[in-house]
């Protein structure tokens, strides 16, 4: 039996707009598609942590896994804070419907405490006292709720077809640009390393000029190089076997 990959246990999201000319599609499809790509990356990275956490034993490997998981928490926190502060208010302004995104904010709060407890566990854990089963159990306390939210938010965006499509695209692009302003030695490696260009014909996502991936791979990944061993994909979004599994000889 093949070793598991980062498409389980939490289910990936089907990509909207397949087979559609995106240049002519409504802005809601464009925004939902971009968000689905981002959310799938978050799910793959979490699955990667979940699958590998019970198979690491050496102190250096444990330390790198903890760092990778901390970076994932940072990604989730910044993404959702950006939604609440920037993206969701813009959607409500475009639609003229105050409170339209409140359900999504409420879902953020539903997994917030579990995510905070997970991050606290990671920050306090020492390699010598590490227990992969404890880490996995901590994920179990919030993972399903988080995964449900990441999936359901896509439909919320797809339902915006009655509103100004260009304005929705513009709002997404402003939000996306803001998210890219984070620590480039963290945000770019974790995003690129959790994408999958073959998933439902995803292609090259996120779209960046060609030299950017080279710069990330040969420069920005160097600072936390050990952590990126736990990424499920290469910098170019190609799937690769997880480094630590039940079949691993690492």
UniProtKB/TrEMBL annotation:
<feature type="domain" description="Hemerythrin-like">
    <location>
        <begin position="36"/>
        <end position="159"/>
    </location>
</feature>
<dbReference type="Pfam" id="PF01814">
    <property type="entry name" value="Hemerythrin"/>
</dbReference>
<protein>
    <recommendedName>
        <fullName>Hemerythrin-like domain-containing protein</fullName>
    </recommendedName>
</protein>
<dbReference type="InterPro" id="IPR012312">
    <property type="entry name" value="Hemerythrin-like"/>
</dbReference>
<dbReference type="InterPro" id="IPR053206">
    <property type="entry name" value="Dimeric_xanthone_biosynth"/>
</dbReference>
């Amino acid at each position: 039996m093949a070793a598991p990959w980062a498409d389980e246990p939490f289910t990936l999201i089907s990509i909207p707009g397949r087979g559609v000319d995106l240049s002519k599609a409504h802005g809601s499809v464009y925004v939902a598609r971009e968000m689905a790509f981002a959310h799938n990356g978050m799910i793959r990275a979490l699955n990667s942590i979940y699958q590998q956490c019970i198979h690491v034993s050496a102190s250096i490997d444990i330390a790198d896994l903890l760092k990778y998981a901390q970076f994932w928490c940072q990604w989730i926190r910044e993404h959702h804070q950006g939604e609440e502060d920037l993206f969701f208010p813009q959607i409500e302004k475009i639609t003229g419907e105050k409170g339209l995104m409140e359900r999504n904010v409420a879902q953020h709060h539903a997994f917030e405490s579990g995510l905070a407890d997970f991050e606290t566990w990671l920050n306090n854990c020492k390699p010598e006292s590490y227990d992969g089963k404890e880490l996995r159990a901590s994920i179990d306390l919030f993972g399903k709720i988080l995964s449900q939210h990441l999936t359901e938010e896509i439909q919320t965006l797809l339902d915006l077809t009655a509103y100004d499509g260009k304005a929705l695209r513009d709002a997404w692009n402003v939000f996306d640009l803001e998210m890219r302003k984070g620590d480039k030695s963290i945000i770019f490696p974790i995003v690129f390393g959790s994408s999958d260009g073959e998933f439902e014909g995803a292609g090259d996502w996120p779209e960046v000029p060609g030299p950017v991936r080279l710069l990330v791979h040969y420069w920005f990944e160097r600072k936390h190089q050990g952590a990126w061993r736990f990424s499920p994909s290469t910098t170019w979004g190609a799937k690769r076997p997880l480094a630590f599994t039940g079949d691993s000889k690492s």
